[in-house]
Design brief:
The complex is a heterodimer of chains A (about 110) and B (about 120). Chain A is an all-beta fold. Chain A is built from no helices and ten strands. The model of chain A has no long low-confidence stretch (mean pLDDT about 95). Chain B has about 120 residues and is mainly β. Helix content of chain B is about 0%, strand content about 50%. Chain B is built from no helices and eleven strands. Chain B is globular, with a radius of gyration of 13 Å. The termini of chain B are far apart. The chains are: A mainly beta (about 110), B mainly beta (about 120). Chains A and B meet through strand 4, strand 8 and strand 9 of A and strand 5, strand 6 and strand 10 of B.
Chain lengths: ~110, ~120
């Protein structure tokens, strides 16, 4: 099955810009979706498709993609953005429908 | 308001079975694919299974294939996960999640999640 690889941890100074990346072969065929998860809470969708934000997600969150790498960018990170971030996409290998998640990136806002 | 409420979790011995349920409201349930995603304590998200709007397409992670069965009852706005031959490594918080689309052959974006139900497999 396909895998999605994320850096385990990233840090950013308050108000600065941070990029969280996700790598995998399936990303050559599918856009990544991105989820934010805060401690003790369910994941929340923050980016999907080429660069779409669900209602209520601040516009400091944006997405991009190139080759086998998808990126989530937070421009002007806020303290409340400290969370775990996960990417996902379809599993492009095999004939059976499957979904795959990255291992997650813990974002620390300094 | 979309709501997904999971139930059925608990403590179960290895090798036994458990059935999870997810009650959906606030949207037209039979227009969307649905998924189960789990998270072991302190670990990341793992997709478990998905089912299309009409149960026509179903998928499973390799880790649960042959042991777990996903199903849905559109008349009851409910999603289920029958878990058999449970193992210690199945211990996790199980989330029910709504797909943005109707078919798991193309969908993977999960726009609403429940709060999860905890399954603990231990003797």
């Amino acid at each position: 099955s396909s895998e999605l690889t994320q850096d385990p941890a990233v840090s950013v100074a308050l108000g600065q810009t941070v990029r969280i990346t996700c790598q995998g072969d399936s990303l050559r065929s599918y856009y990544a979706s991105w989820y934010q998860q805060k401690p003790g809470q369910a994941p929340v969708l923050v980016i999907y498709g080429k660069n779409n934000r669900p209602s209520g997600i601040p516009d400091r969150f944006s997405g991009s993609s190139s080759g086998n790498t998808a990126s989530l960018t937070i421009t002007g990170a806020q303290a409340e953005d400290e969370a775990d971030y996960y990417c996902n996409s379809r599993d492009s290998s095999g004939n059976h429908p499957r979904v795959v998640f990255g291992g997650g990136t813990k974002l620390t806002v300094l | 308001e979309v709501q997904l409420v999971e139930s059925g979790g608990g403590l179960v011995q290895p090798g036994r079975s458990l059935r999870l349920s997810c009650a959906a409201s606030g949207f037209t349930f039979d227009d969307y694919a649905m998924h189960w995603v789990r998270q072991a304590p302190g670990k990341g998200l793992e997709w478990v299974s998905g089912i299309s709007w009409n149960s026509g397409s179903i998928g499973y992670a390799d880790s649960v294939k042959g042991r777990f069965t996903i199903s849905r009852d559109n008349a009851k706005n409910s999603l289920y996960l029958q878990m058999n031959s449970l193992r210690a490594e199945d211990t996790a918080l199980y989330y029910c999640a709504k797909d943005m689309g109707y078919d798991i052959l193309t969908g993977y974006t999960l726009d609403y999640w429940g709060q999860g139900t905890l399954v603990t497999v231990s003797s």
